[in-house]
Amino acid sequence: MSASSESPAASMPGPPRGQLAALLTLVTGAACLLLQDYAPWMVRFPEAWTLPATELVGTGLDAVLSAIKPVMRAWSWLLSYPMSWANAVLVGSPWPLIIGAFTAAGWYIGGFRMASLTFLGFGFVLLSGYWSESMNTLSLVSVSVPLAVLAGGSLGILANEVPRIRAALLATLDAMQTIPTFAYLTPLLLLFGFGPVVGLVASAIYAAPPMARNVILGLERVDPEVKEASIMSGASRWQQLFLVEIPAASQQIMVGVNQCLMASLSMVIIAAVIGGFNDIGWEVLLTMRKAQFGQAFLAGLVIVIFAIVIDRLSGSLALERKRHDRRVTWGLLLSGAVGAALLALTGADTAPEGVFSAAAVAVDDSLGAFTATHGATLDGIKTSAMFYGLLPLRIGLDQAVLPFTWGFQWTPAMSLWLFAIAVLAGLGLAAAGRHMAGAGLVIAVGVVETGIAELPWPFVIVGTMSLAWVAQGTRLAVLSAALLGLVLISGLWDRALLSLYLSGAAVVACVVVGGAIGLLSAVSGIAWIIIRPVCDMLQTIPLFVFLIPTLMFFQIGEFSAFLAICAYAVVPMIRYTRHGLVSTPPEMLEAATSSGATPWQTMTDVRMPYAAPTILLGLNQTILYAFAMLVIAALIGTTGLGQSIYLALGQADVGLGVSAGAAMAILAFVADRLAQGFAEERRKALGL
Amino acid sequence: METGRGRGDTLISMAEQPAISVAGLWQVFGSDAASAFRRAQDEGGSSRDIAGRLEERGYIPAVRDACFEVAEGELFVIMGLSGSGKSTLLRGISRLVEPTAGHVSIEGEDILAASKARMTELRRSRIGMVFQHFGLFPHMSVIDNVAFPLKVGGMGRRERHDKVQCIIEMVGLKGREGAYPRELSGGQRQRVGIARSLAGDCSVWFLDEPFSALDPLIRRQLQDEFLDIRARLNTTIVFITHDIAEALKLADRIAIMRDGEIVQIGTPADIVLHPVDDYVREFARDVVRGRHAKVGSIMRADDDRAANGTPGLRPDMTLEDALATCMAHYEPVAVYDDGGNLLGTVDPQDIASALKADCG
Q1: A47-92+136-289 is classed CATH 1.10.3720.10
Q2: Which of A 236-265 lie inside 8 A of B, CB atoms?
Q3: pTM for this predicted structure
Q4: ipTM > 0.95?
């Protein structure tokens, strides 16, 4: 196939970057296709060329880890004290006292609304029968958050004080957040041994970056005149920082604390996979493994409610304070204490058994009944999604189309016809002046025919380089090629492509569905009123919980993982699309209307182009979310890097865990920079 | 650099030592601006040549070779459009930014050579500063904002609160001590800013467009109060503004800046009556001249024409008033000092032409 030589782009004087890049990608793809029989190394990277990266990393890390192990064990021992204290306080205290104290805190922070939210939330937790498990989780959070706040806060202040290290520090923070959570559980496991300390440390590491980021942002945003005023008042640097700048940035810093809390909670629950602690995450995992979905759902609900209460409570700390009557706070505390005393007197001071267990059983039963009656439908959905969507994307039409799935066998002739039609259509588009669309069409058809997991490696690397070149320039192109090359020679390439395929499929689905929902929310206020709380909730829920409902209906497998990833990653797409569309300046809309544009024309010609940079940022977030969820979804059956990381955790294989984690981080990093580059380019084009 | 004639020069020579003296001050922005400046300077030429060379090389010479002196107790206004470098100049003098080259001394002390600790010391005790957008600490009440310079100086809570009470009363904020900045109006916020800058008993007072963010009525009211405070305290003041009317109303002397250069320094009358170039003339254009120029500025001391002293002109009368008193005269009118001594004459024709000069 020689679409390249006929492409009109080539005949144009000095074709722009985009067309050149598309052309290059096309040529590479075509060359790989044509030469695959003569030079098989062009499709599949020969194993003989790879380095034993996982072993090398493993040996290297083992040496480092065993060197610092004694120090870390000492740390672990040290940390076990505050943990047992927190545990003693939270689990040991009678529940009325805890509920009273939290309700009092709710009142103090946010008045009646927060107090009732806290009371109801904790009440539900109590009645669910998971009180002690929840308190275990909470005690882990209550130790890890101060650690993370302290560490993140000091890093943030350091970056503020020493501008030279700032860029390096921000890059490290990026890495800390893109490296999948499971990946650093493995080395931690080796360092600290099995037990809750690993979860504690992991969650502190995971939760510190948002804190640091917000501290940096907050300090940066302090009004320069406020800083100057403190200098001119004769404050020393120390006084400026602690008497003026940090208090003035307190709102942003509280946003950091909020994010820190949520990240810590999420991680503590995920860390349950290594076990050793009877917390609520473990409960979810256990019941899920036993296929007690009703019970798993209940435990998941406890986590969700916990997350919502903690989020809203700490979130309102970041808002402007209103002063609420102190006496109510004391009253609530006192009533908690009195309740505790009464319970102690009657001798019934343990938390009640779950009152919802009957309900959970009922959910199980009705779920069983539902799957029994609608099993065929569910299976139908699942198999058609697999056969007609996921599978072709993964292994390509040439392998996915079989008599068993599509009812006929794919032949090379069909491929040839498909390519011929695609090239003709592409040329037609190019002739109509839409070169990029034409090239894109041909490339897309090529990808679908071959399958993402089967793509020739030169094509992937050249394609990514071209995209990077268009998005940002030579530097990013070289960087992403080098990083992908690293994955290639590490021998993790096949797994990386599998991960790319699943997250890619999920991202495409999210873009379509999320974009549509975002558009709907932008057009209709009522839709947004309904969708907004759903989005809020989806973003508050710890990743882990997403697995429960998909498992309930679709069992273990790729499709369930796909759904879980979509459910989590669709939110930013919705939010950013809507935000971009509704934030068009009113005078632009008025100008469009007064020029006689219909509402739809205004949407396509004014609002959408204006929203493009924002929507691209949403896409960026969606990609990162999808990668984050991919690893968690490995619990219910994905292939690729996620699975490797999870397996490595089980086998305590540091080399595999860390290198697979790094490969994952590389994919996420490249995707992130690409999307950001395009968003930035659009933003500049619009003069924003 | 052109310097205005008249009262300004005498004022400086009268003082023993200027309270503030600035010489050859440059503020260049860009990476490694100091060596770039030295290179450009070594290549010789006037300050304008140096600045041009720096601009060609991608640097921003925000303040170019600024020289002036401020006498003790003088109110010195620096005026210019936005981007003319006036705020940067003030930040260089107060060392909020480090100047690229030049000398600044305040009350005889070389400010640019002072250590960090010494600067902190000076700011606590001698220098006060007011900001355009007030720069109030959002998390502190009015009294804590005002007492902040004393707090960082190590004074106890009770003592510093007692000490700032009279300042708070002076700026008219009595009764609002417990309020937070967000609960105050713009005018009230700037009163807090003014009070805070005075808390350390400063002898040198910097004000960076203090009234620009306020609406016109409040602005006038605060200007008047500012003049009252000034009369009571006798501090040396450097006042930045972009409003020519404000400059003329408040200043003893005015420095006009354009593109980082001081183009003219002079008394309000000098600026209005003898602008050095079109740029300054443009500024003075909208001004009602009669209100700012004094009789003294157009009086002929050596006039030998017979003058009749009927209207009794004084040299410090504004032209507007002078015109009103000698409307009916066509001959030169005598000007007497307070002791009744004949100083010279003013031709009514001159008053008229001074009032409408440059109008066309």
Answers
A1: yes
A2: 236, 239, 243-244, 247-248, 250
A3: 0.78
A4: no
